[in-house]
Structures are given as structure tokens and as C-alpha cells.
What we know:
Blueprint: E1 2-7, H1 11-22, E2 27-30, E3 47-49, H2 65-76, H3 82-91, H4 96-101, E4 106-107, E5 120-123, H5 126-141, E6 144-146, E7 151-157, E8 160-166, E9 171-179, H6 188-195, E10 209-210, H7 219-226, E11 231-232, E12 238-244, E13 265-268, H8 282-285, H9 289-294, E14 301-305, E15 321-323, H10 326-333, H11 337-350, E16 351-352, E17 365-366, E18 385-397, E19 400-401, E20 408-411, E21 414-421, H12 439-461, H13 468-475
Parallel strand pairs: 1-2, 1-9, 2-6, 9-21, 10-18
Antiparallel strand pairs: 3-5, 4-5, 7-8, 8-9, 11-19, 12-18, 13-14, 14-18, 15-18, 16-17, 20-21
Helix pairs in contact: 1-5, 1-12, 2-3, 3-12, 10-11
Protein name: Fumarate reductase flavoprotein subunit
Cofactor: FAD
GO molecular function, one term: oxidoreductase activity
Amino acid sequence: MIDxxxxxxxxxxxxxxxxxxxxxxxxxxxxxxxxxxxxxxSQHTRNLRCMHDAPQDVLVEAYPEEEYWQDxxxxxxxxxxxxxxxxxxxxSSNCRDWMRRHGVRFQPPLSGALxxxxxxxFFMGGGKALVxxxxxxxxxxxxxxxxDTPVASVELDGDRFVAVRxxxxxRIEAKSCVLASGGFESNREWLREAWGQNERxxxxxxxxxxxxxxxxxxxxxxxxxxxxxxxxxxxxQGHMVAIDARAPLYDGGICTRIDCVSLGVVVNRxxxxxxxxxxxxxxxxxxxWGRLVAxxxxxxxxxxxxxxxxGRFMPPVFPGTQANTLDELARNIGLxxxxxxxxxxxxxxxxxxxxxxxxxxxxxxxxxIAPAKTHWARPIDTAPFYAYPVRPGITFTxxxxxxxxxxxxxxxxxxxxxxxxxxxxxxxNVLGKGYTAGVGMSIGTAFGRIAGTQAAxxxxxxxxxxxxxxxxxxxx
Length: 476
């Protein structure tokens, strides 16, 4: 019988598999996707948010625990478990050497991301390179890996893990198990159920795009909640970003994100602004815009800038709609011309331009207009003008399984002795709402490593009474 079974193939699952194997356990990893699409949402990541008290290789200055905690507290509005959040924060300070030992390389941030040079360590080659490095290391260490093997259910004996059953009907036993198979962001029906119907008679989830993998259907999350596992989080909350409306339904990744929001205005289908575009630095606020757009008519909006903003943000993969006048721009994007022009002119008149500095919380703001723009407010008055259509792009959902510092799945408050969870399936313990750049990888790395270590210990305690023949069959 295999010692540790890991279900999933993203960052958290791989960290768990590697830690369990380093602890001496035999490990089998089941990935739902084909090999070419392995890695879950982690293949689309870029960086890890890291606590550090002094400059460290690719990280400048310092980012102490208390500042990290306050950043997280602000974006979550207090919907976070402080004990677990601080565990993640502290773990982020000492994981990079371990990551390097497994082939991950880091680089200084690109020019379009210098504002996170102090807080985030960027992966050389991005998330795809990271997961490939982990898979190579896992194979070298003897972790068994099976692709195209989605798991449909978990067999339990009370709160004890016994086996999983794959969608193909195969039963696989193990002494312990780590569940790390993601949220339910790719499950359209579950998203519809979570978001419901709005006052306009729309089903907002029908217009959501999925930034990451199509394989995160939430099958095991739903199964475990139905089986009595303790859950946490609001199913309508998640990491949701405003992305280009022309992006593909799945796997658009980071290149479809629209990063010019704070440099202009955002208008909805009725050509009206609806939120402060300059509330805070973009890495702390980019993840609120998907939800904001989801609440607008038709779940569509446009990020509008002028020539002055060009070159100040990471350009998206699709070019913006361009025009030499505001009237022409409105016509080109299908908005009412008079309303659009009035909205922009009212905004321009409200701008109080001081010393513009997009790397600081500057003094360029609006007065006498709602919603206000708190920083980086400059008139949109220099042709050509550009508009980028945006829709909600969901990255991962926050409904998950409740845990403590051991990463054990809990049933009525009682911790399972041999079933653990990591990654998106438990991120809601730390992220009740909101997001700040790189924290998802921090959570997955911290709890993946904890879960793998705990699963190896549990396996060592679990002396199977099955015959060698039965154990061999279960492992294969």
C-alpha cells in the first residue's frame, strides 16, 4: 500500500508530495489533467509574496510580518484567521531555499512590476517553469505520478481516510492522503448556484471567464462537504480580476489582465463610472475589479485611458480600441456618445492635478464628483484615446475545508488522523474575501508543505493489516 496519496497537480499538491517523499514516505500523485496541461492554476502564476526583515537576493528593503499582516487584513476586511494567516506569512520567509533545492529559480521583477519588488519574489519563467521544476524533482525522488486521473470520491471510515475512487471506477488505497485539487471556479453550474440571479434577471456567472485551468470542477470539495467535513467561506467570494472580455474561456492567464485601470477611468454599459479607480496601489486592488464588474449590467465594462498613460502599465495581449475623439471612441465600443462624453468631461473637470507619480500614493485626485478618484487622477484629454473591454475573470474560489495549523480535514471540529488539505481547497481560511498579489502561492506553499509532512507522519503511524498482494494492487 502506498504511504501518501496526493490528489492534485498544482503548487500545493507538489509541495505536499515533495515534503512527504523527503520524509521517507512512498508517494503517489494523481493529476486530473493530461500531462500537457498539468499544474492547475499554478502554471499561470508569477510570484510569491514574501515576508523578509532585510534585503534578500531578489527582494529589496524589508517587508516585515506586521506590514504583511496589515496588508492582508485590509484586503480581506478582517475575514481571515489571524493565527493561520500569520503562519503563512512566517512560512513565506523561509521557503525559498527549499524551493531552489527543487529547481525553482527567481529573478528580479520586470519593469512593469517594480512596485512589488519589495514584497514579491518572481519565478524565472513564471508558474509553468515552477511546476515543471517540481514535477522533475518529484520524478527524480521517486514520486509516482499519474495523469488523466480525476478522482470522483473519497472513502472514509468515520473521520479516517481509507481510499479514493477515480472517475474510471478504480479504487486506490493509501495510509494517508492530501487533497489539493483546487476550487470550483471551472464549474459553471456551481458558480450560477453561488451567484444566483440579480435584480436585472441576469445570471452573472454566465459571463465569467476562467483565468486558469478547466479541470478545477470542485468535485472533491463538494464531496467532502456533503460527507460532513467542516467548511469555511462564502461560495460567491473568490480571486476575481477584471480581464479582457476577448480572453478565452479558460487558461487566459496573466496576459489577459487589464492593468491600466488606475491610470484612467472605468465605465459600465451605461457609460457611467462606478468605483474609485485610484483607491490604492494596483497590486492591492486589482483583485477587487472582477467582482465590481460582475455587479454591473451585463457584467461588462471598459477601462479608458489616453495617450499619457501609454507605456506606464504592462500591456495586455489584445490591443485596445483606439480613436482620436471621445465621441468616436464611444461609437467604436457601442456606448451612448453623449453620456460617455459627459462622464469623461465631468471627471476631467473634477481632476485636481498635483505631482503625478504612479509609483506613490500621489496628490492627483478629484473633487466634487462621485465616485471620487483618490490618486493618479489626470484629465483624459490627449488623443489618441483607448478603451479595453473587461469582464470578470475568476481565478479561484474561497469556499473550502476548514483547517488548523496541521492542515487536517475536520469533521465536527475533530481533526482527521490521516486526511489533509492544502491550496485552493482551504485558502478560504486565510482569504475570506479580497486578494493581494502573490498570497495564493504563499498559502499553497505553506500548507502544501505542512500537509505533506503531516501525511508522512500519519502514514508512519498507520500500520496496515492488508496483505502485500492487496496493498500492491491498491497502489497500482
